[in-house]
Amino acid sequence: MSTHAASVVKRRVASRSVGTLNARLAPSRSGVRPVGARPGVRHSVHTGHDSPAAAILVVESDAVLGGAIVEQLVADGYRAELARTAEHARILAARRVPKLVIIGDLDTPHGTLELLGEIRDADRELVDWARELPVIVVSSRAQQLDVLRAFEVGADDFLARPARYLELRARLRAVLRRSESVAGAERLLQVGPLAIDGDAHAVSLDGQRLDLRPLEYELLVQLASAPDRVFSKEELLRSVWGYQSCAATRTVDSHASRLRRKLDGADAHPPGRWVINVWGVGYRLK
């Protein structure tokens, strides 16, 4: 096979799959260093010479795989930056607040969850991460327990590697749509002592402000829109998560559990007062 033909084949492989170890990117005008880039060195790709701060931060220890994601994001019109380590991600985030973070595999066994936990930590001191920053995890550690832990720590979505870029892009767009729709909501919902101010994106219970993440907030808004109605898990996956098809997943259960703890924790009543699991059906507000 000629050198040119081999290069074309490798580019096609990288564009189709995120997480395929033999994927390699040929040099491009974007400036991404596909192979042999030094850890901790900043790699950025922009759509124009005077492009503003990056909207997407990709954190991935593998330069080739991270470069493939960034390359595809830029081709789709996004601004993206690549960080090879958690420390480098903190530096980039401190300089420019990203709109969304994609966390891949890091060098340490639990590095992905550690960084995710740092982003979700309300008492963080290292970096002032945006409290409602959407995060997608793309990891080779994809056993059921790994996925559940990622959602419990605070992931907005999870993809197992190798993952198709088109699926990653679809999930990314869905997460951004949810984040933007939550920010742009303009309505006030009142369910007893529970108040949801969509214009201010604020939730209070008995006058006490609750700190909810975007998906927890949107799940609560969906349930509060019809407090006496039971919403099926499939319906919630479509309306809140934007899923087109509903495969077996614990996503709704994980978020509902966290939302229940936050609501019950702010209230003096017994646990289970607010978010009710109707077995075999779905969820409703009590």
What is the element layout, followed by pairings?
Blueprint: H1 3-16, E1 17-18, E2 43-45, E3 56-59, H2 63-75, E4 80-83, H3 86-95, E5 100-103, H4 111-120, E6 135-139, H5 144-153, E7 157-160, E8 163-164, H6 165-183, E9 188-191, E10 194-197, E11 202-205, E12 208-210, H7 214-224, E13 231-232, H8 233-239, H9 251-265, E14 275-278, E15 282-285
Parallel strand pairs: 3-4, 3-5, 5-6, 6-7
Antiparallel strand pairs: 1-8, 2-4, 9-10, 10-11, 11-12, 13-15, 14-15
Would you mind describing this structure in some detail?
- By secondary structure, the protein is an alpha/beta fold.
- The chain folds into two domains: 3-181, Response regulator (Rossmann fold), CATH 3.40.50.2300; 187-285, Winged helix-like DNA-binding domain superfamily/Winged helix DNA-binding domain (Arc Repressor Mutant, subunit A), CATH 1.10.10.
- Helix content is 38%, strand content 19%.
- It contains nine helices and 15 strands.
- The protein has helices spanning 3-16, 63-75, 86-95, 111-120, 144-153, 165-183, 214-224, 233-239, 251-265, and strands at residues 17-18, 43-45, 56-59, 80-83, 100-103, 135-139, 157-160, 163-164, 188-191, 194-197, 202-205, 208-210, 231-232, 275-278, 282-285.
- It has a six-stranded mixed sheet with strand order 2-4-3-5-6-7, with helices on both faces. A four-stranded antiparallel sheet has the order 9-10-11-12, with helices on one face. A three-stranded antiparallel sheet has the order 13-15-14.
- Helix 4 (111-120) links the parallel strand 5 (100-103) and strand 6.
- The longest helix has 19 residues, at 165-183.
- The N and C termini lie far apart (66 Å).
- Residues 2-16 and 20-54 have low confidence and may be disordered.
